[in-house]
């Protein structure tokens, strides 16, 4: 019994000290080598021993760890695990935290009383300012969310703040402030200099984003031009002219040719009483810029129409209108645009050709895209922004070879019901005869459906060249009569004026002959 105890002690010492000399290892291996054969005999003859197997089994268990240190690679692996890496990190963190908290509390209380003593009145107005800003914050919870990250960025505010003195955790929560403090040689001088601008900086920052958010909403300053010319007397002119062409453009839209005076001269030849320029309106965010005037050209557009109106005063009535885009999400901008000048006529238009429109809504079949277009046509009427809707079935030029009115007739009927409920007018656009699907916009069948719902109609040439002013007007008026209309309309001062179609037809021929 004494021998195994000594062996066990030696085994324990061998485990604890793997770095012992080779002689000790060899001695241990020799002493342990003796029970090795005993294991073999025991393992082969397990049933033979009855009382002695217990100590012998205990011996091999103790010798088992001896086999592990016996191979040389095992102590090599244990050696790198036991060297100084484990104790090294333990003493390293112990001295590190001790000096860190000691300097941190020392500089923290020193600048705090200095700033508090010098700027005792400063925190009081600071508390009053947010109190004054609190009532607007109630109306806009988003504003309250914005100042929250603002104080987190300027660490200078948190240092003089009173919660640091009241709550101990606030001081250790700012190691960054402690790091900035040591490079500054003079503690009192730079400390007040830094928080002073920092305190002023956060005040303008919340105000700036609020202004930026509200800036894009209002449109530029209104022009309010063309209000000086009086309206012409009702009825025909001396030449017998009675009607207006209510849709034409200027070179500012980048796809029209000819000065406004050239359009005016052609209107006289066509037997018209007046014309209304409706150039493509500017749009925000660079929406389809290649077919419209730029925002900076709006006043130029107004001036061009004003110039022509003055030049033809007493000969032809020339009024300012605009072809105003409808695109979901731009309603607020369009509403502001309509306040920028004294428009006589605002013509709403859904242009499916726009890249932005196609990217957003061309997601399904051709027929589904056309149904989306008619839904937007109805929504433009329901917006209340426009006097009339331009070229109502323009979408038939989208894959014109597959256009079949019968397929979309139910969709059109639903849209016309919604449009009729608003009281808005719709346009019969004669330029459809010059498009890929050669038919006026709208076609005769849709025109009949409009007449059934008593939707007023305005006729426009949509001229992009001067020689098309008043083009196909006689044909258009005959289409209206065939569809069931008796009257045709135009707008002045955004008020609809209705005329009998028969009177308009007679006036066109009479005035054209007079002016020839």
UniProtKB/TrEMBL annotation:
Recorded hits in Pfam families, A to Z, give: PHP
Q: Which reaction does it catalyse?
A: L-histidinol phosphate + H2O = L-histidinol + phosphate
InterPro entries attached here? Histidinol_P_phosphatase_HisJ, PHP_dom, Pol/histidinol_Pase-like
Domain PHP stretches = 245-431
Pathway entry: Amino-acid biosynthesis; L-histidine biosynthesis; L-histidine from 5-phospho-alpha-D-ribose 1-diphosphate: step 8/9
Q: What is its EC number?
A: 3.1.3.15
User: Where along the chain is composition biased (Low complexity)?
Assistant: 132-181, 196-210
Keywords for this entry? Amino-acid biosynthesis, Histidine biosynthesis, Hydrolase
Region feature (Disordered): 1-210
Compositional bias annotation for Pro residues: 85-111, 182-195
Which segments show compositional bias classed as Basic residues? 74-84
UniProt record similarity statement? Belongs to the PHP hydrolase family. HisK subfamily.
Q: What is this protein called?
A: histidinol-phosphatase
């Amino acid at each position: 019994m004494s021998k195994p105890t000594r062996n066990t002690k030696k085994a324990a010492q061998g485990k604890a000290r793997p770095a012992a000399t080779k002689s000790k290892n060899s001695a241990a291996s020799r002493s342990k080598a003796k029970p090795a054969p005993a294991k073999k005999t025991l393992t082969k003859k397990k049933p033979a021993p009855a009382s002695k197997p217990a100590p012998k089994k205990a011996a091999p268990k103790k010798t088992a760890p001896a086999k592990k240190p016996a191979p040389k690679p095992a102590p090599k692996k244990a050696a790198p695990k036991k060297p100084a890496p484990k104790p090294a990190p333990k003493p390293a963190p112990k001295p590190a935290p001790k000096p860190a908290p000691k300097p941190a509390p020392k500089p923290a209380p020193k600048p705090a009383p200095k700033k508090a003593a010098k700027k005792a009145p400063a925190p009081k107005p600071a508390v009053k300012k947010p109190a004054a800003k609190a009532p607007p914050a109630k109306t806009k919870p988003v504003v309250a969310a914005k100042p929250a990250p603002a104080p987190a960025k300027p660490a200078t505010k948190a240092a003089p703040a009173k919660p640091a003195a009241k709550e101990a955790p606030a001081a250790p929560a700012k190691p960054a402030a402690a790091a900035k403090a040591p490079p500054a040689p003079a503690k009192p001088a730079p400390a007040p200099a830094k928080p002073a601008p920092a305190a002023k900086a956060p005040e303008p920052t919340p105000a700036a984003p609020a202004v930026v958010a509200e800036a894009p909403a209002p449109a530029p300053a209104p022009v309010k031009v063309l209000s000086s010319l009086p309206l012409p007397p009702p009825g025909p002119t001396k030449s017998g002219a009675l009607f207006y062409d209510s849709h034409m453009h200027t070179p500012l839209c980048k796809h029209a040719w000819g000065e406004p005076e050239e359009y005016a001269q052609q209107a006289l030849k066509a037997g018209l009483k007046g014309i209304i320029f409706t150039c493509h309106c500017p749009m925000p965010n660079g929406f389809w810029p290649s077919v419209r005037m730029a925002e900076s050209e709006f006043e130029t557009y107004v001036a061009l129409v004003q110039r022509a109106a003055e030049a033809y005063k007493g000969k032809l009535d020339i009024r300012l209108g605009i072809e105003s885009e409808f695109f979901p999400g731009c309603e607020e901008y369009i509403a502001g645009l309509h306040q920028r000048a004294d428009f006589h006529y605002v013509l709403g238009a859904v242009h499916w050709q726009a890249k932005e429109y196609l990217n957003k809504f061309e997601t399904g079949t051709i027929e589904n895209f056309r149904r989306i277009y008619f839904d937007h046509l109805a929504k433009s009427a329901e917006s209340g922004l426009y006097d009339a809707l331009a070229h109502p079935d323009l979408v038939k030029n989208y894959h014109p070879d597959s256009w079949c009115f019968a397929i979309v007739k139910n969709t059109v009927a639903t849209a016309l019901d919604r449009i009729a409920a608003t009281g808005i007018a719709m346009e019969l656009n004669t330029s459809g005869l010059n498009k890929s699907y050669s038919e006026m916009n709208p076609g005769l069948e849709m025109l009949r459906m409009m007449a059934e719902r008593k939707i007023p109609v305005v006729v426009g040439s949509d001229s992009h060249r001067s020689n098309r002013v008043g083009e196909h007007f006689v044909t258009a008026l005959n289409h209206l009569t065939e569809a069931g209309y008796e009257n045709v309309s135009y707008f002045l001062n955004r008020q609809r004026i209705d005329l009998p179609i028969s009177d308009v037809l007679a006036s066109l021929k009479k005035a054209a002959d007079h002016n020839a």
